[in-house]
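Reopening this ticket.

The earlier resolution said the output was attached, but the attachment link was broken on my side. Pasting everything inline this time so it's all in one place.
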Amino acid sequence: MMKAMMLFVLAGLAEIGGGYLVWLTLKENRPIGYAVSGSLILVLYGIIPTLQSFPSFGRVYAAYGGVFIILSVLWGWLVDKKVPDMYDWIGALVCIAGVSIILWAPRG
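Inline output:
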């Protein structure tokens, strides 16, 4: 389970970080190298989830979506300095509950 969570976090950071670098180029006029670096990181994001041991592509990506939401809230807080409100945290907890159900619910 630790490997799965580490891969989810790594994939999330790659997607958010890569997208952020592209955002900085397009929205804040940073050098094109930011966008190029961000794009390469986004390619890594496409590879990282394939390292999961879960047999279902759909379930891995659905669960990853919940992890992505939580990482996005944290990124906004730590990088963009936008403090999450109570509804951000409630939404994040709902997402974690959903991720847990999707990945670890007993199936026959």
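Reporter confirms the inline version is readable. Residues 2-104 form one domain. The radius of gyration is 15 Å.
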